[in-house]
Amino acid sequence: MSGLARPSLQQLQMTERVGANHSVRLLIRGELDLAVAEEFEDRVIELSRRFARVELDLSELGFIDACGLRAVVSSMKASSRSRGRVVLDTNVSAPVLRLIDVVGGTAWLWSGDQRTQDRVRTIWLRAVA
Predict the structure, then answer these.
(1) How confident is the model over 29-40, as pLDDT tens digits?
(2) Are 37 and 9 in contact (CB under 8 A)?
(3) Is the model's pTM score more than 0.90?
């Protein structure tokens, strides 16, 4: 094992729930970090090839690092080149919201929707209060 990569303390779990209109919701639990980011990204891209819409549910994610957030953003960008569309649900856990806020990602993850950005900001303010 490399000195840089640490094993995830809580194993990454990805649960799919197929919905209407050729969509799938992917619930992510555990930790999304350097150790599992590639696995996550590969799975999301694969789903975006099979479904018209992939909704990422990070509401139960316990930890995310910069590599995990990069994997989320990269999979969203890659989906624009494939058949499906990947979207991030605004109902994210406090650790996810904290990282998104720190990097200034609210505007670009939920771009074009001021109501959603305001809702995310409200959730963040409640989480840190």
Answers:
(1) 999 999 999 999
(2) no
(3) no
